Structures are given as structure tokens and as C-alpha cells.
């Protein structure tokens, strides 16, 4: 079988958004390259490739893909070169591409994300595995913003908390939280395809029994407070999310934010402050920032 490979040349900041556009256009697999895995790319230059099966007539889809990539700039996102290129690839190349780019990745000392088709075994008894189907959209769990999110979860969770995962995507953060002892998890995503992908990934990970996954726009209409709210999303979505958080965060609870490129950190901090939240700690990975925040108290 032949596949059509569509590659968008971009920068790190836009990688997740472009992956979503390509998935929504009918891609069956996404491959992300940046300087950490491809020597020919330097700095924050990145490439997102999507593989479409023969049954999809890709040239028909290209104008909309191009238009949606360009529209990202309207949300304040830098897209870099933004060029879109087509290539036919044979099945064998595709199989090799998966193997090359989706390797088990140790996110933290205790959590490793593993493509579902590998037989990777933990190297020690404390290493827990997050099994993900790499054919599904919304990240394989190896993006730096996901790394930061999992690191922040590991820093604040002690077990037994209630957690809300906003923009769950592949469900990776909910699976990580379940491994860290959280049983009461609500996972939401505005996109039904993402919710379906998350549910399928929950089924691959026995630890996730009982997670509620539903389509929802941010936290509109959600009731019932949580100890931890985690959101790895673009700043353009985090800004309207933040004012919804204080009503849903228990006293002493944490809001964990990732998906923030360094240039957008100031606007996120301003929005947090205007809504009675303060930054307890910030984590950095490349150009990305993760913020551990909590409600301000009288002592602050
Ligand atoms: C960068 S992905 C994060 C996926 C996953 N949580 C992770 O950390 O790898 C962002 C997700 O947010 C979702 N999203 C975007 N806007 C949203 C909204 N208004 N409400 C809920 N989810 C949203 C997207 O569909 C996407 O799945």
C-alpha cells in the first residue's frame, strides 16, 4: 500500500496545533521532528508530517490544510516557514518511520511512555509504563510540554486527590496521574475524536479504571471542585480557562499549566494574577514553560 506524506515545515511552538489540523484532515499517523531528533533541523525549527492512506485524495484537502495552518497566526502563534509539501511513500518506509520516531521515552524517573506495539519492559520495579497507541492523534506523550506536565504532576501529587485534565488529547496526563495514585479523574476535550482516542488509550492502561472522559469546552458547565487541575494547551486557550479555575479548585489545590512558549509567559502570569492565582514554581524545557500555581491566600 502507498501512503501520502504531507509535511509542514514549522517551528516548535506550532507543532501540536498543526498535528491537530492534519489529524482532523484524515491523517492516520503523525510524525514530529525537531532538532533533538533530526540533525538537519536547528534551533526551534520543526517539521510535522502526516500519513494519509490511499483512500484519502490528499490534493483535495491541501487548500484547507494550508488555510488552517496560516490561520494559526491569527491566534498569535508563530508558524515559521509554514510550507506544505506532498510525497508518496511505500508501506515499508511508513513502518520504518514509526519505529524511528516512536520509541519508549522516559518522561520522569518513574514514568515511561511506550508505543503500544513495542514489548518494552520496565528496567526496574519502580518504573511504570504509559501505553499509547502512536497511530492516534493528539500527541504520543513525548512532546516537551507533555514532559513538563508529567513532571509537574509528579511534583504535586501524593495520591488520593481529585483531578481534572482539561484538553486531555491522547489522555496521557490522566494515565500518568492514575499511576501517581489519583483515582478520581475527569478528562475533558473539546474534540470528540480526542476523547475517543483518550478512551482507547485508557483501555490500554489497566490503572485508569474509572476515569470519566467527556467532550467539553474548557470547564464550561463543570461542577465539583478538584485538588488538581492540569491543562497543557496553547496560551490562546489557557487565557479564557484561567478565570474558570478558582471556582473549581479546592483550598490548597494546584492548577498546572503547560503549553506556554516563553514569549507568552508574561500574559499567562498576568491573567493568573488577575484571577487570584499565584505561581509557586516554574519549570523550563527548551522554549517551553510549565507553571505550578495555586490560589492566593491572606498570607501571600
Ligand atoms: C497540546 S494538546 C495536549 C494533549 C495532552 N493533554 C498532552 O499533554 O499531551 C491540547 C489539547 O487541548 C484540546 N483543546 C483545545 N481547545 C480546547 C477547549 N476549548 N476545551 C477543551 N479542550 C481543548 C485539543 O483538542 C488538544 O487535544
Describe this entry's structure for a reader.
Keywords: Cytoplasm, Methyltransferase, S-adenosyl-L-methionine, Transferase. One of its GO terms (biological process) is methylation. Belongs to the methyltransferase superfamily. PrmA family. Methylates ribosomal protein L11. It comes from Latilactobacillus sakei subsp. sakei (strain 23K) (Lactobacillus sakei subsp. sakei). By secondary structure, the protein is of the alpha/beta class. It folds into two domains: 3-97, Alpha-Beta Plaits, CATH 3.30.70; 102-295, Vaccinia Virus protein VP39 (Rossmann fold, 3-Layer(aba) Sandwich), CATH 3.40.50. The protein is 29% helix and 32% strand. The protein contains eight helices and 14 strands. It has helices at 15-24, 58-71, 91-101, 144-156, 172-179, 192-204, 235-241, 265-274, and strands at residues 2-11, 29-33, 45-53, 84-90, 105-106, 111-115, 128-132, 162-166, 184-189, 212-215, 226-232, 249-261, 277-285, 288-295. The strands form three sheets. The protein has a seven-stranded mixed beta sheet, with helices on both faces. α4 (144-156) packs parallel to α5 (172-179). It starts with a strand and ends in a 5-residue tail after the last strand. The model has no long low-confidence stretch (mean pLDDT 89). S-adenosylmethionine binds next to α4, α5 and β9. The site of S-adenosylmethionine has 24 residues, from α4, α5 and β9.
Amino acid at each position: 500500500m502507498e501512503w501520502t506524506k504531507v509535511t509542514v515545515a514549522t517551528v516548535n511552538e506550532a507543532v501540536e496545533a498543526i498535528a491537530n489540523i492534519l489529524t482532523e484532515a484524515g491523517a492516520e499517523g503523525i510524525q514530529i521532528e525537531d532538532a533533538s531528533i533530526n540533525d538537519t533541523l536547528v534551533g526551534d525549527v520543526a517539521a510535522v508530517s502526516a500519513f494519509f492512506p490511499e483512500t484519502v485524495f490528499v490534493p483535495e484537502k491541501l487548500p484547507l490544510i494550508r488555510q488552517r495552518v496560516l490561520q494559526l497566526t491569527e491566534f498569535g502563534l508563530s508558524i515559521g516557514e509554514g510550507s506544505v509539501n506532498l510525497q508518496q511513500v511505500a508501506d515499508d518506509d511508513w513502518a520504518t518511520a514509526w519505529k524511528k520516531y516512536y520509541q519508549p521515552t522516559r518522561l520522569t524517573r518513574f514514568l515511561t511512555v511506550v508505543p503500544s506495539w513495542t514489548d518494552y519492559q520496565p528496567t526496574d520495579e519502580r518504573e511504570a509504563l504509559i501505553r499509547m497507541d502512536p497511530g492516534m492523534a493528539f500527541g504520543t506523550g513525548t512532546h516537551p510540554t507533555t514532559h513538563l506536565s508529567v513532571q509537574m504532576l509528579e511534583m504535586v501529587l501524593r495520591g488520593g486527590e481529585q483531578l481534572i485534565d482539561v484538553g486531555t488529547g491522547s489522555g496521557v496526563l490522566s494515565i500518568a496521574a492514575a499511576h501517581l495514585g489519583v483515582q478520581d479523574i475527569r478528562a475533558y476535550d473539546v474534540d470528540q475524536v480526542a476523547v475517543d482516542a483518550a478512551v482507547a488509550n485508557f483501555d490500554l492502561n489497566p490503572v485508569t479504571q474509572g476515569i470519566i472522559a467527556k467532550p467539553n469546552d474548557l470547564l464550561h458547565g463543570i461542577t465539583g471542585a478538584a485538588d488538581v487541575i492540569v491543562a497543557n494547551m496553547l496560551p490562546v486557550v489557557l487565557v479564557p480557562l484561567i478565570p474558570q479555575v478558582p471556582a473549581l479548585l479546592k483550598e490548597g489545590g494546584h492548577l498546572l499549566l503547560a503549553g506556554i512558549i516563553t514569549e507568552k509567559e508574561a500574559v499567562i502570569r498576568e491573567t493568573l494574577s488577575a484571577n487570584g492565582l499565584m505561581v509557586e514554581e516554574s519549570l523550563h524545557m527548551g522554549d517551553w514553560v510549565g507553571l505550578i500555581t495555586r490560589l492566593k491566600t491572606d498570607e501571600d
